[in-house]
């Protein structure tokens, strides 16, 4: 019997895929297998029995990969299993930022008891007007499972889409709409983009990817979307770019207090992958990865 522990709440639909040879236990120090979502595994000791860890999600920056490799523990993630959920939220973020839906919503909330509400709607129309995304340029940085879908959706919404990915696989390239223009030199196109959406993993080399130099090259009033990882954006450079008007809005799924205190930031509490469908997909994929590894020695990460 293999013992499995869940460091986070993992969808029961996924857990039900375990056969009777697997038992869910509370104590991770006793288990051969671990399922994790966002818990920081750097803070957990690695027990001698541990064989494999599966992350029900794409990013693995909450798992100490070096430590796992040294201990011979295999680490899986579930790329693609939550990509539609994240893509849909990125598109929502783009629309919310372009049309000031938050301003409009708050206006109605604040004025809902005003007897002249209907009359004052004209003022709100002026204050919370916006722009359409049709015909605008979207730059997608990183064309993996999520970035590729964001790029294709941008095309279907009538946007001009530029995509950058120095590690673009043949398979990912095949999945892209032929109207996505693949860019070789990012620096040359920052100034063309009305929207920039980040879809990079967080690595030492991508930390502060959006820094002062990058912001300086952007078009005035660019809208930046970050549903990937908070540390991809340099906080001070972002603050300066928002106050100078270089960045019109920053839409982020990572609400730390620094960002939450800035003007023109729309922040969400890491909701990108939080749909019922995505949680079920990720958990199901992770459970099958663990069982295939234990039973057949397979290391299957796609
Ligand atoms: C991911 O890396 O895929 C997301 O962070 C998933 C999550 O919200 O757990």
TrEMBL record:
Q: Which organism is it from?
A: Hujiaoplasma nucleasis
The UniProt family comment states: Belongs to the D-isomer specific 2-hydroxyacid dehydrogenase family.
Keyword terms, alphabetized: Oxidoreductase
Query: Pathway it acts in?
Result: Amino-acid biosynthesis
Shown chain mapped onto the complete sequence: 1 to 302 of 386
Domain annotation D-isomer specific 2-hydroxyacid dehydrogenase catalytic: ranges: 18-302
What is a single molecular function from GO for this protein?
NAD binding
Q: Which classification does the entry list for the species?
A: Bacteria, Bacillati, Mycoplasmatota, Mollicutes, Candidatus Izemoplasmatales
Q: What is this protein's record name?
A: 3-phosphoglycerate dehydrogenase
Q: Domain D-isomer specific 2-hydroxyacid dehydrogenase NAD-binding spans what residues? A: 93-272
């Amino acid at each position: 019997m293999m013992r499995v522990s869940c460091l986070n709440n993992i969808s029961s639909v996924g857990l039900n895929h375990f056969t009777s040879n697997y038992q869910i236990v509370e104590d991770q120090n006793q288990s051969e297998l671990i399922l994790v979502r966002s818990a920081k595994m750097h803070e957990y000791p690695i027990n001698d029995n541990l064989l494999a860890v599966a992350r029900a999600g794409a990013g693995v920056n909450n798992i100490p990969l070096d430590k796992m490799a040294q201990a011979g523990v295999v680490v899986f993630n579930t790329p693609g299993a939550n990509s539609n959920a994240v893509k849909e939220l990125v598109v929502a973020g783009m629309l919310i930022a372009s049309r000031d839906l938050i301003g409009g919503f708050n206006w109605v909330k604040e004025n809902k008891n005003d007897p002249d509400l209907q009359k004052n709607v004209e003022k709100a129309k002026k204050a919370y007007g916006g722009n359409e995304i049709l015909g605008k340029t979207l730059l997608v940085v990183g064309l993996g499972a999520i970035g590729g879908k964001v790029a294709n959706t941008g095309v279907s919404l009538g946007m001009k889409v530029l995509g950058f990915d120095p590690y673009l696989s043949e398979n990912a390239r095949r999945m892209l709409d032929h109207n996505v223009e693949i860019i070789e030199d990012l620096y040359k196109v920052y100034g063309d983009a009305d929207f920039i959406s980040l879809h990079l993993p967080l690595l030492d080399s991508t930390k502060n990817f959006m820094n002062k130099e990058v912001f300086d090259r952007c078009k005035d009033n660019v809208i930046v979307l970050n549903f990937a990882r908070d540390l991809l954006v340099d906080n001070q450079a972002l603050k300066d770019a928002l106050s100078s008007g270089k960045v019109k809005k920053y839409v982020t799924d990572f609400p730390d207090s620094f960002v939450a205190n800035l003007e023109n930031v729309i922040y969400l509490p890491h909701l990108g992958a939080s749909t019922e469908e995505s949680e079920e997909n990720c958990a199901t994929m992770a459970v099958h990865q663990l069982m295939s590894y234990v039973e057949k020695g397979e290391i299957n990460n796609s």
